């Protein structure tokens, strides 16, 4: 745009010079000074016109913006995540020292204990899930039951199989020492037994000794009789030949005449078959003759 405009101005200036030249008499020579003045006038006119033209837009030089500083480092996770694997065999520990019993009930006798700080494997549970079957911490190779009140289970409880309580079991207590008129007034010890197992009890044997020295308190002329029908409804009543699960009965032992207030111990052994056959369980009862 700028060179074309300049060419137009030069052309106009030339025409102006020619027009002026035509108005001068031919006989008057064109003095160099006049030509110089004309050229000066044209130059001034061009300069004036150029000064009135709008200035061209300046060219901006956009600087390149470079990043300054350094980016923060990527976050680093310190430490290593630790995963606690669930043991394949569930474990048990207790918050309070807990007795370990022959079966899943306070009626069963104590055969061991699981103490605070001990952790053992679980081998079974009862149907209600409130007693746990473990290897006896006191006797390797034997098993017993701990109550779940203070138990903490590590692992999948659902994976613990149901365990069957001992099928043969009973609890016993001392009732009295009295005469049996049906036997001629002989003295007898009377014990109550309760079958809490799952099978019938069909035979029994009993021995009674002094706690102090282990000497027998049973009458030497009347060894324990009716081993196959020991379960009575009364002191002198006839004996039954079995005791069903959940049933209760009395067992009579003919005694020598003992001194009153003598500490004694009875050992009762009951079995699932006649003549002390089948599965048997033995229980002891400490008492004072009176």
Per CATH, the class of the domain at 170-288 reads Mainly Beta
User: Which parts are unreliable, with pLDDT below 50 for 5 consecutive residues or more?
Assistant: 1-6, 16-40, 54-83
Topology order in helix (H) and strand (E) letters: HHEEEEEEEEEEEEEEE
How would you sum up the global shape?
elongated
Strands ordered across the widest β-sheet? 3-2-6-5-4-1-7
Based on the coordinates given, report the CATH architecture of the domain at 170-288.
Sandwich
Secondary structure blueprint with pairings:
Layout: H1 2-23, H2 32-52, E1 91-94, E2 98-101, E3 110-114, E4 120-125, E5 131-135, E6 143-147, E7 151-154, E8 170-180, E9 186-195, E10 203-210, E11 231-232, E12 239-240, E13 248-254, E14 263-273, E15 277-288
Antiparallel strand pairs: 1-4, 1-7, 2-3, 2-6, 4-5, 5-6, 8-9, 9-13, 10-14, 11-12, 14-15
How would you characterize the overall build of this protein?
The strands form 4 sheets. A 7-stranded antiparallel β-sheet has the order 3-2-6-5-4-1-7, with no helix packed on it. The chain has a 3-stranded antiparallel β-sheet with strand order 8-9-13, with no helix packed on it. A 3-stranded antiparallel β-sheet has the order 10-14-15, with no helix packed on it. The N terminus is likely disordered. It is 15% helix and 33% strand. The chain is elongated. The longest helix is centred in the N-terminal third of the chain and has 22 residues. The chain is α+β, with helices and mostly antiparallel strands and 290 residues long. The N and C termini lie far apart (141 Å). Among the domains are: 69 residues, SH3 type barrels (Roll), CATH 2.30.30.40; 119 residues, Immunoglobulin-like, CATH 2.60.40.
